[in-house]
Write a structure and sequence with these properties.
Blueprint (H helix, E strand, L loop, with lengths): L2 E9 L4 H10 L2 H8 L3 E8 L7 E7 L2 H8 L2 H9 L6 E9 L10
Keywords: Monooxygenase, Oxidoreductase
GO molecular function: monooxygenase activity
Protein name: Antibiotic biosynthesis monooxygenase
Length: 106
Amino acid sequence: MSFWTMLMIKPQDGNGEAAAQAHIKRRCVEEAAETIPGFLHGETMLSAEDPDLFCVMCTWVDEAAYKEWQNSPVRAKQSEDLADVITGEIKTLSFNSIHTVAPTRD
């Protein structure tokens, strides 16, 4: 089964959408996909309840692939580039997938 990570970001300036757009413009998820063979899927989402909060959720083949990303110089450069934009409360959650359901299509 896969390994999921969820990065919850609440920018200090209170503008979650602007910070999320900066993250998108910087191509953070795309670079993870291009750099790490174990990257499977990624999404950037704005909270429906809190306009100051956005989330980056990614799926990896396993925890080792995620750790490879954490130690990647590409990720380090992204963090450096976005240091002025993405400040404030940042929380990372990790999950091991134990059950998956998808609809069947004919």
